[in-house]
Amino acid sequence: MTVSNPVKFGLILLLIILIVILGILTELISLPKEVVTVTTTTTVTPTTTLLTTTIPPTTIIITTTTVPTIMKRSYCEDHKCWLFEGQSIQVEEENVTYMITLLGVIDDDTAVLGIDGESKTFHEGEDKTVKGLGIYLMEIFYLPKKEQVSFVHLLYY
What single DSSP character describes residue 142? Predict the structure, then answer.
């Protein structure tokens, strides 16, 4: 009688251990495998940033891509110009051709324009005549980071 009790006890203990192991394995196998995707798009003139994050249950991967300014080439349409820092654009008013250059953007209210070689400081909303060409500086977009290019929106007449 004393021999069978330890055998029964050992078998019962082994059975309990197997049930616990089986339960743990079943739990591990049936864990949901979720992937969470978070997409945030932020629009900043003139830079667009796209952040996409994929998060599996135990791994975090973050990727960030900065898309440069969509338009980096100065252009004019209907006497309105978008002029980027360091770039020039040729315009014609009353059969006279003028070269307008954005020499620099000092801050969010001050820019220096060159008109046919003569430089003038403008403030946003200011109207001046330089070498016979009227210029109204509508907006200044000051972008102080090294990889960004500041620009202005102006009206000539």
Answer: -
Using CB atoms within 10 Å of the CB of residue 3, give its burial: 0 to 12 exposed, 13 to 18 middle, 19+ buried: exposed
Torsion of CA 113, 119, 123, 126, to 10 degrees: -90
**What pLDDT digit, counting tens, does each position of 80-101 carry?**
999 999 999 999 999 999 999 9
Sheet holding 47-55, edge to edge: 36-44, 47-55, 61-67
Element (H, E) at 34: none
Does the N-terminal peptide bond of residue 46 adopt cis geometry, omega within 30 degrees of 0?
yes
- Phi, psi for 30 (deg, rounded to 5): -90, 5
Give phi and psi for 44, each to the nearest 5: -130, 125
Residues 6 or more apart whose CB falls under 8 angstroms from that of 65 comprise: 49, 50
pLDDT, tens digit, for every residue of 2-37? Answer: 556 777 878 888 888 888 887 777 666 655 555 555
Walk across the sheet containing 110-115 and list its strands: 88-93, 96-107, 110-115, 118-123
Do the beta carbons of residue 18 and residue 10 sit within 8 Å? no
